[in-house]
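Below is a filled-in request sheet from our internal design queue. Each sheet records the structural input a requester submitted and the sequence that came back. We keep these sheets so that new team members can see what a complete request looks like end to end.

REQUESTER: design group, bay 2
PRIORITY: normal
MODE: inverse folding
CHAIN LENGTH: 250
BACKBONE (tokenized):
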């Protein structure tokens, strides 16, 4: 796997995270673009289906995986990105204490001039594990300055995000604790974030990409972590604003 030719690389913990969190940003991103799904590996043969996959309507883990790979390929096509899968099975099918295979090598292959997007790990432990391992592989001492994207819909369900994330965009005091801690890891902190309102044609395209992941959208929309009075796919709902932070240059 050679990522050096890509000008934009998105590290997506699960099959739907790039579309949910960056479906607007990626439409204006310099290409070629790669979306790398960290938990993109096949479950072990014969493993019992997880509760999540069963509730999504799949009788076996293999059925869920095959469907999600196809959905992700369609979403990547809609976003103009290449699909790259790492060999880690999804959370219910692997030991969470094991390092994520392929991730260290992947982020080190990204060109120094490319835009690398990592999850901020806000309100989502699996995303935080991906973020932490990627930062450890990259280091924080002057190499690539990755972008950290607000994990949607999880971030949008937190207090202070609803009104176009106004406080998030202007005041570090309003940032989630995960972002404050990110800033402390980098010697010069984080820049004020960039907010991308996803409206009009951007929203239409993002909605199409998100709907490619139809097999699990019904459960995503009703998770406890996103139980707020705004619809997931509403025009001004949980996915309508994307926020991206970056470490300061110094």
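RETURNED SEQUENCE:
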């Amino acid at each position: 796997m050679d990522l050096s030719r890509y000008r934009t690389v998105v590290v997506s913990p699960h099959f739907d995270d790039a579309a949910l969190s960056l479906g607007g940003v990626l439409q204006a991103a310099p290409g070629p673009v790669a979306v790398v799904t960290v938990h993109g590996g096949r479950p072990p043969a014969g493993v019992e289906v997880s509760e999540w996959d069963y509730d999504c309507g799949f009788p076996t883990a293999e059925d869920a995986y095959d469907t999600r790979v196809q959905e992700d390929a369609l979403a990547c096509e809609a976003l103009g990105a290449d699909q790259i899968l790492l060999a880690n099975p999804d959370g219910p099918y692997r030991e969470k204490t094991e390092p994520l295979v392929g991730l260290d090598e992947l982020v080190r292959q990204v060109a120094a001039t490319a835009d690398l997007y990592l999850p901020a790990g806000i309100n989502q432990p699996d995303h935080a594990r991906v973020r932490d391992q990627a930062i450890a592989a990259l280091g924080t001492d002057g190499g690539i300055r990755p972008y950290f994207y607000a994990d949607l819909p999880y971030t949008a369900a937190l207090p202070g995000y609803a009104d176009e994330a106004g406080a998030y965009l202007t005041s570090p005091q309003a940032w989630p604790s995960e972002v404050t801690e990110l800033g402390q890891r980098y010697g010069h902190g984080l820049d004020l974030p960039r907010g991308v309102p996803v409206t009009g044609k951007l929203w239409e395209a993002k909605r199409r990409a998100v709907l490619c992941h139809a097999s699990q959208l019904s459960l995503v929309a009703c998770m406890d972590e996103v139980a707020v009075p705004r619809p997931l796919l509403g025009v001004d709902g949980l996915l309508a604003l994307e926020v991206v932070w970056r470490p300061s240059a110094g």
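SHEET NOTES:
- The radius of gyration is 17 Å.
- The CA atoms of residues 18 and 161 lie 19 Å apart.
FILED BY: M.R.
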